Amino acid sequence: MLSEVFNNALASLSPEGPAVLGVNMSPDNKFAFVELRTIALSDAAQHLDGIELCGRNMKVGRPKGWVDPSAEAKATAAAAEAPTVASGVKATTSAAAAAAAAPAADTVGQGLFPTPNDDADDPAMQNARATMHMRATSERDATMAIAEVNTRFPPTPLGVPAQTLTRRCVLLDGMVSSGELSSPRSREEFKEDLREECAKCGIIDAMVVPPPPREAIDAGDPGRAYVSFQAECSARAAKDMLNGRVFDGRVVAASLASDAEFERARNGEWLPPRPPPGDPSLCGILRVRGMPPEATKADVVNFFYGMGAEEDKVKIIIAPGMANLAGSHPGAMSTGEAFVEFSGDDANIQQAALKDRAVLGGKPVSVFRSSLEEVQRVALMGRTMI
């Protein structure tokens, strides 16, 4: 279980394979050493400190006596006094049944703050300074990561009714080849033919046929067009009418597109191909941690706006002993954790996963991949989800 927790949380940072190389559990099951693939992964793993496992908060930190590999050669004396774990973290809980670990101090005893009589070359002092520098670097990197993600995704306030995604645009792929759209004149002619066909479904606001780049033409990629309607029902009708139809021996792929995609195409951008709606790569389950306890399902839906989250697909985990209050005080007993399922035509779990460390209700939240098996395991542990 402990390996699965770390592997799931660090999956996006370890594309080459599972993040965990091994777990060494203590005989009494009160703590464990977790060996990770890289130092960078062990740095990231420390952000899991405080997450809930088996009904208790897990504490994650460096094992006592951990030595930064860059300073290891100069810290022989300090390393001889305590075991060294090259790229590990120590996880503990106070529960014997919990597969987790107890916090470990990174300090090395006396001499953390030097005096005029301290020896500048003392190995223990250098190890302490290296540890302090590592902590400062990790905190700075975390702060920069939060700032970066919230530049891309603005903070989501609480208490706003769930926003319903409106898609008035249709993306049409494959009616013609990209080579047939290489000139402005050919694009205008195609646009007029397409306008006549799409007008059967409703009033058209605007149309865009982006110029294909040379690479797309050389690769024989299909041409594409975007049609924006005044009403969403018109866009959906056009999608249903055109998807799968054959034009000049070509099968058309029609799907709903976002306003942002339409604007990018209007500005001349040739967007990379994306999986079709409902593709398995766009669907799945995410686990969210660190939400304000008063956050509701509507707040979670707004946090993932435009990515396929719906209120009936959000399950908020309830604190132990508080399930009887679920009806009258839904915000008073939340653990700040939730499972969110992404499915259907609007699902885009790949985009949703990028919101890790984005702000919800003034708090940066953690977002990572989960699974139906994890949801079922939490339920079997007796946890209530609403």
Describe the structure.
Pfam families: RRM_1. Residues 174-259 form the RRM domain. GO terms for molecular function: RNA binding. Keywords: mRNA processing, mRNA splicing, RNA-binding. InterPro entries: Nucleotide-bd_a/b_plait_sf, RBD_domain_sf, RRM_dom, RRM_euk-type. By secondary structure, the chain is an alpha+beta fold. It has three domains: 2-141, Alpha-Beta Plaits (2-Layer Sandwich); 169-266, Alpha-Beta Plaits (2-Layer Sandwich), CATH 3.30.70.330; 280-380, 2-Layer Sandwich (Alpha-Beta Plaits), CATH 3.30.70.330. It has eleven helices and 18 strands. The strands form six sheets. The chain has a four-stranded antiparallel β-sheet. Strands 8-9-7-12 form a four-stranded antiparallel β-sheet. Strands 14-15-13-18 form a four-stranded antiparallel β-sheet. A hairpin with a 2-residue loop joins strand 10 (246-247) and strand 11. The longest helix is centred in the middle third of the chain and has 30 residues, at 123-152. The chain is elongated. The two termini are 24 Å apart. The model is unreliable at 78-88, 92-119 and 324-332 (pLDDT under 50).
